[in-house]
Amino acid sequence: xxxxxxxxxxxxxAATWRALGLLAILLIVLFVFSGRVSMVQVMDNARQAxxxxxxxxxxxxxxxxxRLDLSVGATAGLANVVLxxxxxxxxxxxATALAITVFFGLLVGLANGILVVVLRIPAFLxxxxxxxxxxxxxxxxxxxxxxxxxxAGFRVITEGWLFGILPWSVVIWTACxxxxxxxxxxxxxxRKMLLSGxxxxxxxxxxxxxxxxxxxxxxxxxxxxxxGGILLSSITGMASIGIADTYTVDSxxxxxxxxxxxxxxxxxxxxxxxxxLILFFLQSLLYVLSLPPAARFVLQGSIIVIxxxxxxxxxxx
Amino acid sequence: MFEGSLRSNLLxxxxxxxxxxxxxxxTAYMSPNFLxxxxxxxxxxxxxxxxxxxxxxxxxxxxxRIDLSVGAIMSLATAIMALTSASLGWLAIPLALGAGLVCGVVTACGVNxxxxxxxxMSLATAxxxxxxxxxxxPSPGGEVDYAFYDMLFGAERLLSAPxxxxxxxxxxxxxxxxxxxxxxxIYAFGSDPRAAFAxxxxxxxxxxxxxxxxxxxxxxxxxxxxxxxxxxxxxxxxSYTLDAVSAAILGGxxxxxxxxxxxxxxxxxxxxxxINNTFNLLDIDTSFQNIAKGLIFILALVLFMRGKAEEH
Lengths: 317, 312
Known about the structure:
The complex is a heterodimer.
Chain A: H1 3-10, H2 14-34, H3 39-64, H4 72-87, H5 94-117, H6 123-142, H7 156-159, E1 161-162, E2 166-167, H8 168-186, H9 188-198, H10 200-205, H11 210-236, H12 247-257, H13 269-288, H14 295-316
Antiparallel strand pairs in A: 1-2
Chain B: H1 4-11, H2 14-30, H3 37-62, H4 70-88, H5 92-112, H6 118-136, H7 146-153, H8 161-179, H9 181-191, H10 193-198, H11 203-229, H12 238-250, H13 262-281, H14 286-305, H15 308-311
Helix pairs in contact in B: 2-13, 3-8, 3-11, 3-12, 3-13, 4-5, 4-6, 4-11, 4-12, 5-6, 5-11, 8-9, 12-13, 12-14
């Protein structure tokens, strides 16, 4: 691709600017209220927001294809249970534990993709059913009390800081965002995904196997959800049932704040990152104001409505 | 009287009818307890909540919309009943129904005025409703007056109050949908919103009616549930959303709107209750039941929706 074209593509979209602006305003408000400004504090928040950031990236890939994945929370929860069980607190098991966890994640994505493409089930229903099956399977496997733990050596990925200024989980998050950005916007396969998401029929007429792109996006999204689940496990250090359930709606909210459209064809990793941080900061704000935990659900719902209403309003004009 | 679209709509209920008949024969054959009075009463008391919530979901689907907030609304209704039935008595019921109506109207407004995709709008409503419910009642508890239980589930016989109430609800909605101007407008809007608009059908009216009814029926289902468990539970409704959509699709309702019939949904709801009942009679673990339910749902989708998406 010629350099000017790369530069044109690299210019952040208006929606990304909006999300980043909102994030900046939120940070200023937080600083003014807490009376302290520190980069470490921001980075520490980003560190904890990383699982949501990764899961929301996966959701954004599905939204890019004009679909919705309601199983990302269950998939991240599955990763948590499987990782802790296969790690069993022993660093020697790292390679097998990661391999098994990722394998299960990819399996979920493949199942979703096949249900949606081959069996022609609407994505939100297929993934809703998958999440029910996953939740049931976790209960059957663990008998209600999941075992195992994540060894301290591995927990460096969320507890450790690079040069003492950058948490490793933020590094992982940024790397994933950049890789996906480059992949979707600059690789041939990624461009095909964008086109299939924007207009599946046009893509098909131009010889792109749009169906295969959909399966691929589901596998990729489940992989991102699994990575999110791995980071989450590293933060908590143990397995718990339903730990990631709220991430399904959270990931939709984060992607939508970041400019994702339900009509498909849009993928803005920077916007999604800003959206995840905004959601996380708002949720910590609720915590600081000592509002009951239930308030976060009200926040989730309202944010989705406001973000979508605003984007629809702009489209109309 | 059974001409044209009405007849083809009635035909969509045949698979569900066959399935529930098959399940009745199977279960009765497998378990001698099945036909006992207590099991039949139990069945009809479980049919009522699933039936009501599925009926509401079906109305939304007739109009080509979808409502994923019904489970959350059910939980809200159980919380309202548990918190207010001691002090307000009978008035708790209209209060819970009113809350369900408000939830439905909120979704309808988001869909109609803000033009948010119904799927996502109802998910957002569900999140908000869940938050409100957990603010009201953070953990299962509260108390519902036993007098309600006695009224609804007191008599142990086949033609018990819950069964009669389910039948009335389904017959009323079936009649409204097939023989009134409003019902036909909902079907027309579901088949082709643009053509419906050109013929003077207001989309706002349709959205308000279907989401309002869905909210109220979900609240009614929640009320029944709270009376059965004699308390409230902020999470009890969650699994019912999938049940409601399953029952509607199993009953021959098309996700694209305009097709399906309340009669089919009745038999599909009955089939779901029978499947659950079979699991319990066979003493299958609840976590396996979840897996089985997910798989049954996928199977239903595959059998009933195959190819329909391509028409669209």
